[in-house]
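Teaching assistant's notes for section 4

Start the section by putting this record on the projector. Ask students to predict, before seeing the second block, whether GNAT family N-acetyltransferase will look compact or extended. Collect guesses on the board.
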Amino acid sequence: MEIRSYSDTDEKEWVYTKALSYLFSPFFDDMETSKTRFNPEIYKDSIELVAVIDGQIVGILDIGIYNEDASRNYMYYQGDSVAYFTNLAVHPDFQKKGIAKKLFEVARNKLIEKNVEALSIFTRKSDATLELYKKWGAKLICKDYLVVGRPKNQSSVRFQFDKENKKLNLFNIQGEQKASLLNEGHYLITDEEELENYDIDELIEEYTYLLII
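Reveal the predicted structure now:
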């Protein structure tokens, strides 16, 4: 296996690898059709790696290194040089082979070379992923919940098909016609007790870790 820097010619395989990996993960809704780019107004540098086996990209890793101003104002850790873990994905056919570990080993050495003080990692609940970050020495500093659903006190949505005008007519629970109604949404919840106030279709636990380099 070869670990090397990302090249622009890798973009198509990069997208495929991330899409396939995330499809079977809690990040199923994070799909990109192009390579993640780092905003130069926020990031001064980046580490962008790919893992290659027999000419095929099987793993990707991206870390953005904030500029001095963004680092000193970063909410989770204030320092002269702070980084954010943007992407880590391994092709499903090549998982559990140590590829993520190897990618991070190379990335960590580069972070040390670049004098980065801390790395922030945002993730969602996956026992294997959480265990991996803990093995790397990352500490949990924040947890929240992403609810797909609706508040229990929200009016239900009803709709009828208007054949003549070829459109849907929307009505709230009182039978009043509306131009728009919130059917369901994504709600960010910070307190677990608040979850009981929602009719939940899907619950995603989100975690923020901090790794001191």
